[in-house]
TrEMBL record:
GO terms for molecular function: oxidoreductase activity. It holds the Pfam family Amino_oxidase. Substrate binds at V241. Its cofactor is FAD. InterPro entries: Amino_oxidase, FAD/NAD-bd_sf, Flavin_amine_oxidase, SQase_HpnE, Zeta_carotene_desat/Oxidored. It is an enzyme of class 1 (oxidoreductase). The gene is pds. This is 15-cis-phytoene desaturase. Keywords: Oxidoreductase.
Length: 472
């Protein structure tokens, strides 16, 4: 890789072009550094990506991604990159359950959090009076329980809080599976509380849903990538980094597709399961405590079922589906009916989809169609033209109690090596927000180690006076 003559800026390599790596590059580009971002795929974006549908000739996201209002770092990155206007902000959520009317919930803006959600439970018609009473008591106890005081699963905590199995399944798991990609029976208390409190209870706009208006391949792989290039970041897409080697105890050599280059600092932003491949030097492996356990973190799959009908089955752009296999339905704005095929695209998201293993795809499709026909009368007459099931078996790491103890910081014991990824210590579970925070913290680690400055993540949404008083 040729360097401009007279360019004496410190050199930083970022290995991995997902959101964590892109966030690190964005933060570091505020400083006089030469930054090179390596990505094995032809397009950056990582797990937040798309595929080219050959029939519609449009990019289709592997699985729908959304942000929430509490995701202050992700939204700030989008704002700084000039991309926030490429999202639609929804302030209402609609829940659909069999044999019950639609339940649309929205915050009461003039009430301070958490009272802004005072009427939410009353609107959830699929919950019985007894279940609503249990949830109210559970929310109060959740607000008053500091996260560090509990070292168990969320389900055990909920059971101790007198939540019935039905209440856990029909309320708590509906929220947790969508947000964490994991069930209450497995997820640790602290990350579950983080999502529930910060995502719904601590601030009035926390639960706003921000939905991309473009495929992720365009939003992140093209537009955010171009914004990084405009800031001087070199993006080496299609180059697989096969290993890192320490040179003279102060430089790290990056080996990519038979070409080597040296950098003062390297941010490793590959997924946790790829760390063993990249950290080929024993000095670097030893710099990451518990590496052997880290690469084997338990994972949870997320599936996206892509459906093309001959007509739109609903006018709703998105809704939460309760008491079934399907959990969310999306009808993306950027997917207009094809003039040539007259197809209408919908996507069903199934998080924590390990139960689908071994099921025939036709059975999964039939089950989802049966559920959609129960929710949407139009679906009964609509013809399914084609479908595609996409499952990422390692979509997210499973935030179990034992996993929280293994998550590493962004700095390592080798000063020139830094880590970024949602699996690192961010205070967040496996989310886009956690990925961006990790990138910002990794950038700060680079800057502090080199003596070049500092870069701090955004604070969360400001809490109301009442939330400050109630939430421990």
């Amino acid at each position: 890789m040729k360097r401009a003559r007279g360019d004496n800026r410190p050199r930083v390599a970022i290995v991995g072009g997902g959101l964590a790596g892109m966030a690190a590059a964005w933060a570091l580009s505020d400083f006089p550094l030469e930054i090179t971002l390596f990505e094995a795929r032809k397009r950056v974006g990582g797990r937040a990506g798309s595929y080219q549908d050959p029939v519609a000739e449009q990019d289709v996201d592997f699985c729908q991604h959304v942000a929430m209002g509490c995701c202050t770092n992700f939204l700030e990155l989008m704002r700084q990159a000039g991309l926030l206007n490429q999202f639609t902000r929804e302030t209402e959520l609609t829940f659909l359950a069999p044999q019950h009317p639609p339940a649309t919930v929205a915050p009461i803006d003039w009430l301070p959090a958490p009272l802004h959600r005072a009427t939410t439970l009353n609107q959830l018609s699929f919950l019985s009076r007894r279940e609503k009473s249990q949830v109210r008591r559970g929310i109060w106890r959740l607000l008053r329980t500091p996260p560090a005081s509990v070292d168990t699963t969320m389900q055990r905590w909920l059971e101790a809080a007198k939540q019935s199995p039905q209440t856990i399944e029909r309320f708590w798991d509906v929220l947790l599976v969508s947000a964490l990609g994991e069930h209450a029976r497995r997820v640790a208390f602290a990350p579950a509380r983080k999502v529930l409190v910060d995502g719904f209870l601590a601030a009035n706009r926390a639960a706003d849903v921000w939905i991309p208006q473009q495929p992720l391949s365009q939003l992140l792989g093209h537009r955010l990538a171009n914004a990084l290039r405009d800031r001087g970041v070199k993006i080496e897409a299609g180059r697989l980094v096969k290993g890192l080697q320490v040179v003279a105890d102060e430089m790290i050599e990056v080996q990519a597709d038979g070409v080597t280059d040296q950098f003062q600092h390297v941010v490793v932003a590959v997924p946790w399961y790829a760390l063993g491949r990249v950290l080929s030097d024993n000095k670097l492996r030893d710099a990451v405590p518990l590496l052997d356990r880290l690469v084997d973190l338990p994972t949870s799959p997320i599936s996206g079922l892509h459906l093309w009908f001959d007509t739109a089955i609903t006018e709703r752009r998105h809704c939460v589906l309760v008491d079934g296999l399907a959990q969310w339905l999306f009808r993306p704005e950027h997917f207009s009916a094809s003039e040539s095929t007259r197809e209408h695209y919908h996507q069903v998201v199934i998080s924590a989809s390990s139960d689908l293993r071994g099921m025939e795809e036709s059975r999964i499709v039939d089950k989802v169609l049966e559920e959609l026909q129960g929710h949407f009368p139009r679906a009964r007459d609509a013809q399914l033209l084609r479908h595609r099931l996409v499952t990422d078996p390692r979509s997210v790491f499973s935030v179990r109690p034992q996993v929280e103890a293994v998550r590493p910081p962004q700095s390592t014991t080798f000063p020139q090596l830094h880590l970024a990824g949602d699996y690192t210590q961010t205070g967040w579970p496996a989310t886009m927000e956690g990925a961006v925070i990790s990138g910002f913290l990794a950038a700060d680690s680079v800057l502090c180690s080199g003596g070049w400055g500092s870069y701090q993540p955004q604070d969360g949404l400001p809490r109301s006076w009442l939330a400050k008083w109630l939430i421990r």
